[in-house]
Amino acid sequence: MTALRAVALTCSLKPSPAPSSTELIAKQLLDELRGHGVDGESIRVVDHDVRPGVEKDMGDGDEWPSIREKILGADILVLASPTWVGHMSSVAQRVLERLDAELSETDDEGRPTMFGKVAVTAVVGNEDGAHKITADLFQALNDTGFTVPAQGGTYWNGEAMTPGDYIDLDSTPEAVASTNATLARNAAHLATLLQASPYPAK
Hints:
Layout: E1 5-10, H1 21-34, E2 39-44, H2 64-72, E3 76-84, E4 87-88, H3 90-99, E5 118-125, H4 130-144, E6 153-157, H5 174-196
Helix pairs in contact: 1-5
């Protein structure tokens, strides 16, 4: 059995090095996963030229193929999005569209390429929408072939009509920290099981 690896796709609209609440919660999840022996890295998608489309390589300088290789090399995908007017960011939507190409990609035994990989989500925002975004992310990721663990989504919503972001908090709220810990524990457990006993081939 090989060591588990995670990759976090941070779908903030803010390019680096701007501070990002979405980046913060993604890194918190990676820290929690490290506590379970899972190494990982975070990629801020907006820093890369990810072209629109539903192919694994849209050509002409498209940088999605390099991100895709990171996903293929990982056991756990962390997909983190901010909330904008009640919806996931356009960057997160583009990631889902690009993952659609995996529906026609298979491994050596005929299984979709993302079978055996675990996906978890994180959503932050100072407005409503986290539950709806999480549901949409879960559905798309599961359709693509990822497996979602029990309580595989974490989120923070600020108080309604009140300014302030997750990154501005003095400390992580206890409920969020507890959810992050549960998410990481369950994700690592599930990834270990799937590595040891993959889904059956056709």
